[in-house]
């Protein structure tokens, strides 16, 4: 459906929300329109906290959440007590489903209405009356759609976005989505065009809450940038360019095997702390308290594990492209870790110690290519896809649909601009 304001300056579209699919990889050739003209690799974006549109707020039910705990976080403890006095409501909402959505309408610190969406079809509605709270199950009362808005910047993203019908939450997300492309403080120019697709929750046909941006396009006179939201299997949500595969890669290795830890000795010639002689240091040392977890820096398998001379307790892992990594001076190995066992990047393989020839608690980390030791902090790291083959294909399907919708928005925004120009606007 397409609608507009009376002067035709703002375009709104809504359609049913795309079915969610399990994460899967993107094949190399996406065959999408070459709209984004500047290379960008997609970046992790911290999901913005729930924001209120009007008097409505949205909340995602967490594991072990109860109605009482959610209302407590909203500082509605008194409301919670009144709600639970109603045995029907207490029974209906006594076992909230993890990841379900819950919407609340609060006026003057008092809950007026609550909508619990168990799934797309089953919705429980709580309303306040003169006699207290009442609740009932309704079918198909809540609808989730893809809302689409396109507008041309005249003053600012905030002012024009609000005039177009965007919530504060969606506008804030736009600044996050394009933070690597557009300077929202200095780079916004009149005439720039924005198209955005986002979740719109509707109760009895009325929009009550708009949530996460699913895709967006920012077009200047010379360039156009597109981003599509996608959640990887590991749970990390990014906004990716939909028009290429080179940006969908990351280094196959972490630079260091600790989440924390101080670089205590670098790679190269140094005076040995025990023997006092100048010798080549073939790795990098990271100091950390005894027992600090040591992580595999990449996917691989255990080549060897055990005690080895000056290395003390040491593990060597085999990886892709003839690369091996070594972790020395451990206080202990991960329980049940054995030679030949597969490990994943980020798996704990042991713990910081000072075994072997060592003057204090640290991990000695080596990076070898075909047996030759390289500087772990400077060596060029091989790249791997950030998605599995299944994730890549799923992203391709999602991106194709989003790019088509963004193209439609672009045409409407252009037609709208022409119309305004013709009308002297």
Automatic annotation (TrEMBL):
<keyword id="KW-0482">Metalloprotease</keyword>
<keyword id="KW-0645">Protease</keyword>
<keyword id="KW-0479">Metal-binding</keyword>
<keyword id="KW-0378">Hydrolase</keyword>
<dbReference type="InterPro" id="IPR016047">
    <property type="entry name" value="M23ase_b-sheet_dom"/>
</dbReference>
<feature type="domain" description="M23ase beta-sheet core">
    <location>
        <begin position="280"/>
        <end position="376"/>
    </location>
</feature>
<keyword id="KW-0862">Zinc</keyword>
<protein>
    <submittedName>
        <fullName>Peptidoglycan DD-metalloendopeptidase family protein</fullName>
    </submittedName>
</protein>
<dbReference type="GO" id="GO:0046872">
    <property type="term" value="F:metal ion binding"/>
</dbReference>
<dbReference type="Pfam" id="PF01551">
    <property type="entry name" value="Peptidase_M23"/>
</dbReference>
<dbReference type="GO" id="GO:0006508">
    <property type="term" value="P:proteolysis"/>
</dbReference>
<dbReference type="GO" id="GO:0004222">
    <property type="term" value="F:metalloendopeptidase activity"/>
</dbReference>
<dbReference type="InterPro" id="IPR011055">
    <property type="entry name" value="Dup_hybrid_motif"/>
</dbReference>
<dbReference type="InterPro" id="IPR050570">
    <property type="entry name" value="Cell_wall_metabolism_enzyme"/>
</dbReference>
